[in-house]
Specification:
The chain has 25 helices and 16 strands. It is of the alpha/beta class and about 650 residues long. Bound molecules: guanosine-5'-triphosphate and magnesium ion.
Length: about 650
């Protein structure tokens, strides 16, 4: 039952009852196509949540002619809920948006968490058109990722180049194989039944492997029970390699690009994320066709999807502008996949409904969550798509619209997994990715070394950290201050990239897909390169934290606060104002947030700590002077009458 193909109605009236509509709009679906059971179950069970109630309101508005009686009864309770929320907001001043990941099924997920323009044009992409895009793409590709899901037993093969310029020295074959298996098991219905590292001298043009290796592998594969797919863990297999391997093995063969696409597809809940997956898969499909007419049609689909995504990008820009207008600075939480970004956000925002999952690319939709800092200032934590090494550039490029939220953040929180053996490579991959999304070099990066609970002996000096898996927890405020770093220039980091258009061209031209986000190691020896990665990793100051035990998170909060105050040109002020007096209301109106404490021994004064810009301070002083003057006038007129 598709109830929601109509454009989104005006939401202005609804929003007006929310004081902080930036957050509420972030929690709102843009062009959501919810199913009825979702509305009923989810909203009724979660009616104490602000975001849920907003969804309820939108749904109510969007299906005015809905006759479903159960929905009707829910609608009747809506008004009461709205008022409850209003009161709640009035008393607490702030309600963060919630993420529903933990509580709903993928198919029932809110369609997008970004705001929509309040006009008739606000539907991001028409569902029928999207279906036709996928259908047409399927005709050419022999199956698109969304329709040809991977399931069953999988054999993971890692071709490992023993030596030469293509050898990877910052990691080991075993670590890469583990990552490949983790990728495979991130898919819902896939089990890894065997895995193998196959050492090769180079990737053979027709079959990747040498003749003898191919015979051995084929024999092994044919003897395997319950096998449905062979995953060859290289970036992209050429058309001929794919065909030859499939013929040889007699089962379906997939490469890393296809596997990652399948994971993205399974984890993409919003229309935006789905469109991004489709955009990433079309160039891939183009490499599989030789017909010019087919290529042309795929090109026109790519154009259409890009146009639709540009629209999303504009909407995101609107949301960002709104945040700026409303003075909600944003913190983008970035990092390698599975390092604990979502868990950190859950811990920092205090929102237990957001749960991290032990899966690669668990988060594919950029979501925003409110966080209140100790000074009372409110900010938005933005959860982002994790990065991974050797992710084909066109895959990353298609997520550009989403990643722009990270690029425009006031502060970046880089979450690293301290317990991961491949953390050097993780660090470089993330730095390279941040560079590729054009993160300004002036944006402060706060690095958090997460999962410290998995490491023993966390009080060692940073020197001993290099060789053992130990970490030093910061102890002084200077340490906390020193955890800030900035993205260095590409010159310094010797990072080499190709642009989005280059990447797509390479992808579409196909046979040899070599674009990588890697350190340019052309003039480095293997050991030099490893040394370089170590230096990069250990020279980046970091805070040791654990999202699980909450250890070290207070330091992180202080570091965030310090940086946000700096980038928004604010300073902290502490003042004592008459309790319940007009000055307090003036301050609240100007600043919007502060922490207020009334001392029991002197209750006539309220102690207020607040962060203000110079301009806000000047306005506050001016208003207080005007107040004093009008009080004086009033006093003298009263005295005159007497
Ligand atoms: N032991 C331990 N586990 C953690 C910690 N933080 C996160 N995890 C676990 O790490 C796994 C990944 O956590 P997520 O928060 O989903 O990681 P993520 O970076 O958001 O992952 P993606 O969205 O897939 O990129 C989950 O199983 C978490 O429970 C921590 O501090 N300690
Ligand atoms: Mg996540």
């Amino acid at each position: 039952m598709n109830l929601f193909c109509r454009p989104v109605p005006r939401l202005a009236t609804l929003r007006s009852c929310f004081q902080h509509n930036v957050f509420t709009s972030l929690g709102a679906p843009s062009s959501g196509r919810f199913c009825c059971s979702y509305q009923h179950n989810h909203l009724q069970s979660r009616h104490s949540s602000g975001a849920s109630i907003l969804h309820s309101v939108i749904l109510y508005r969007r299906i005015p002619r809905q006759t479903n009686s159960s929905l009707g009864s829910w609608c009747r309770s809506l008004t009461t809920q709205s008022y409850q929320l209003k009161e709640l907001k009035a008393s607490t001043g702030f309600r963060p948006a919630t993420d529903h990941r933990g509580s709903i099924n993928p198919g029932n997920r809110p369609d997008s968490e970004i705001s929509v323009k309040e006009d008739e044009d606000s539907t991001v992409v028409d569902e029928a058109e999207y279906a036709s895009l996928l259908h047409e793409a399927k005709i050419f590709g022999g199956g698109v990722v969304s329709e040809s899901g991977l399931s069953g037993g999988m054999f993971v093969i890692l071709p490992w180049i023993k030596w030469g310029p293509q050898q990877k020295n910052a990691t080991t074959s075993q670590l890469l194989l583990n990552e490949a298996c983790a990728l495979a098991t991130s898919l819902k219905d896939v089990t890894v039944i065997d895995k193998e590292i196959v050492k090769i001298r180079f990737e053979a043009k027709q079959t990747i492997f040498g003749t003898g290796q191919l015979i051995t592998l084929t024999q092994k594969i044919r003897d395997m029970r319950g096998l449905s797919t062979v995953f060859v863990s290289i970036d992209i297999l050429s058309r001929s390699q794919l065909r030859n391997l499939q013929q040889e093995f007699g089962v379906r063969v997939v490469d890393r690009y296809w596997l990652v696409l399948s994971i993205f597809n399974q984890h993409a809940y919003t229309t935006e994320a789905k469109m991004q997956v489709a955009l990433a898969e079309l160039p891939y499909l183009k490499t599989r066709t030789r017909e010019d007419s087919e290529r042309e049609i795929i090109d026109s689909r790519i154009k259409k999807l890009r146009a639709a995504l540009r629209k999303v990008q504009r909407q995101r820009e609107n949301v960002r502008q709104k945040r700026t207008q409303k003075d909600f600075p944003s913190i983008a939480v970035v990092g390698y996949t599975n390092t604990g970004k979502t868990s950190i956000i859950s811990a920092l925002s205090g929102d237990s409904s957001i749960v991290g999952r032990d899966q690669l690319f668990a988060t594919l939709d950029v979501t925003a969550h409110g966080m209140q800092l100790p000074c009372g200032m409110r900010s938005v934590l933005i959860d982002t798509v994790g990065f991974i090494q050797d992710l084909p550039t066109s895959l990353l490029a298609s997520f550009n619209a989403t990643l722009q939220d990270a690029a425009h953040a006031d502060v970046v929180l880089h979450v690293r997994d301290l317990s991961h053996p491949d953390r050097l490579m993780h660090h470089t991959t993330v730095m390279a990715a941040l560079y590729s999304i054009n993160l300004p070099s002036t944006t402060p990066i706060i690095t958090l070394d997460n999962k410290a609970d998995l490491i023993t002996d966390v009080q060692q000096t940073s020197k001993s950290r290099e060789d053992k898996q130990t970490a030093r927890a910061p102890t002084t405020s200077a340490d906390i201050h020193n955890c800030i770093s900035y993205l260095s220039s590409d010159e310094q980091h010797k990072i080499h990239f190709q642009s989005e258009s280059d990447a797509t061209t390479v992808a579409t031209e196909g046979e040899e897909y070599v674009t990588k986000l890697l350190v340019d190691e052309s003039d480095m020896t293997n050991s030099e390169r490893l040394q370089f990665l170590k230096e990069q990793y250990y020279s980046t100051p970091s805070l040791i934290v654990s999202a699980k035990t909450k250890k070290g998170l207070l330091n992180a909060v202080h570091a965030i606060e310090e940086q946000l105050l700096r980038v928004t040109n604010r300073r902290l002020y502490r003042m004592k104002l008459p309790t319940g007096g007009p000055q307090v209301s003036i301050l609240r109106k100007i600043v919007g947030f502060s922490t207020e404490t009334i001392n029991e021994e002197a209750p006539e004064k309220t102690e207020i700590v607040t962060a203000m810009t110079e301009k806000q301070l000047a306005t506050f002083k001016k208003r207080c002077r005007e107040l004093a003057a009008s009080n004086l006038e009033l006093a003298s007129s009263v005295a005159g009458k007497e």
